[in-house]
Amino acid sequence: MNSQSDHLRDQAERAERLSKSVNNEEASRKLxxxxxxxxxxxxxxxxxxxxxxx
Length: 54
Fold this sequence. Notes:
By secondary structure, the chain is mostly helical. Helices cover 81% and strands 0% of the residues.
């Protein structure tokens, strides 16, 4: 892992916590989607960093 992917995972956790604490369903859904997007991007960065062809 790298610091950028770690940062994205931290942001994903924050967005997930917020999604569970807001009362607005649309905002909650958007935050959950944002959280997943952060996690996907972090995973892609980790995968690229571990790719031996790079």
